Each structure stands twice: as structure tokens, then as C-alpha cells.
Amino acid sequence: MNEKDFQKKQAALAALNYIQTDMIVGLGTGSTVSYFLDALAASQYNIIGVTTSTITSQRCAELNIPIVDIDAIDHIDITVDGADEVDSYLNGIKGGGAALLMEKIVAKNSKENIWIVDRSKVHNTLGAFPLPVEVIPYGSGQLLRQFANKGLFPKLRRHPGNNQPIITDAGHYIIDCHMTTISNPYALAEYLESQVGVVEHGLFLNVCDRIIIGDNTVEIKERQQAHMEIN
Ligand SMILES: O=C[C@H](O)[C@H](O)[C@H](O)COP(=O)(O)O
């Protein structure tokens, strides 16, 4: 196991400390969450999961973790998810695995959100990871043009194998915005949310309550209060 995977696994194991039997647990998507699912399946906790992607649902089936439809429950106690990048305010970029829409729905309906990450993902400001934006296929070419004019360096995400656009679980495309630095994530989120054809974006602002950074010594950071950029 390489250093990054070691850190992911350490973070995932530490997240288990926040789980209790009978909880309804939101289950994120990705390689870090995969370590968490393994740990959860091996634990003594009887929980019910709410999944954020087809792939996580499949992993739960393989691991015998019971899951429930999000619309069949009235609350989610806690969600454990990965992230692609996290800043010092615990804001983040998600969607590297194209699961951002369902991840955001589950996160917004959770009483508490924990992100598990390796140290390479923690930066002072966001932007090093390309920002995924989930869009309706119809008119996506127009959005690509608008985003380019806005200086967002957009690129339609395609399968490396056949070069076809990747399709999300909800049937949408992903446009990745390669900006390198995001000076005001709140203004960018507002702009993206105002564009017709944008379904959701990967900026998760004031969502994460606690990050667990895996390392030889696991580091835990809690969000103190909602952060807003003052223009
Ligand atoms: O769409 C995918 C999710 O936002 C993932 O949680 C994120 O990409 C992190 O994935 P990984 O743990 O594989 O780096």
C-alpha cells in the first residue's frame, strides 16, 4: 500500500469512531470511502446506509451493508464522504468520481458531515483540483462556451477509453473547470447556480463539519462557524 492509500485508510478507520449502532449513515463515494465501507462491514455496528452512487450501492451489496432509499427515511444521522480538495475553512471540491449531485443531496440532508482525506488534498485555498460541474447534456456546448468566456477553462469529461462523454448516475454530463485557483468560491458558486443547464457544482461550501486527515497521527479539524467571503 502506498503512502496516500495508507493515509486514506487511517482516516477511514478513524471515522468509525463517530458511528453508533442504529444510525442512518450517508455513505459517500470514492477510494477513501471504500476503505470506510470495508471497516464498517467488519465492525460490530448495525447501521443502515444511504448511498450516493451506483458504485457505492454495489459495494454495500458485496459487503452486506444494508441500505435504504433516501426518500424512505426522515433523517440521516451522519455522512462519511471523501473529497478531492479541502481548504482551511473546511470548504471543498467534490465530484472527481462524478458523484457530486447525489453526494450533495445526501450531505444537505445529514445532521453531520465528516470528510476523510489524505494530506495531499488539504490546501489553503481551492482550485488545484479541477472543479466538476454537472450539466444537462442538451445545450452543454453552449455552457462550455460561456464558461470559457468567464475564464473557467472548462473541459467536458470523457471516458479515456472511447472518448465518449461520461454520463453521471442521474444521466448528466460533467464539465471540469481547470482554474488552478478559486479566489472567491462563494461568488463562483452563485454564478454557476444561476446558469440554466447547470444541475449542480462540486463546490461544497459550509457543508463539512469535520475533516479527518489520515497520517501516522490522524488529524481532526472541526468547522467552527459558517464562513462567508466578504467582498
Ligand atoms: O465524485 C466523487 C466524490 O466526490 C469523491 O468523494 C471524491 O472524488 C474523492 O474520491 P477519492 O476518495 O477516490 O479520492
Automatic annotation (TrEMBL):
It catalyses: aldehydo-D-ribose 5-phosphate = D-ribulose 5-phosphate. CDD domains: RPI_A. This is Ribose-5-phosphate isomerase A. Catalyzes the reversible conversion of ribose-5-phosphate to ribulose 5-phosphate. Homodimer. Pfam families: Rib_5-P_isom_A. It comes from the Bacteria. GO terms for biological process: D-ribose metabolic process; pentose-phosphate shunt, non-oxidative branch. The active site is at 103 (proton acceptor). GO terms for cellular component: cytosol. Substrate binds at residues 29-32, 81-84, 94-97, 121. NCBIfam families: PRK00702.1, rpiA. The gene is rpiA_1. Pathway: Carbohydrate degradation; pentose phosphate pathway; D-ribose 5-phosphate from D-ribulose 5-phosphate (non-oxidative stage): step 1/1. GO terms for molecular function: ribose-5-phosphate isomerase activity. Keywords: Isomerase. Its EC number is 5.3.1.6. InterPro entries: NagB/RpiA_transferase-like, Ribose5P_isomerase_typA_subgr, Ribose5P_isomerase_type_A. Belongs to the ribose 5-phosphate isomerase family.
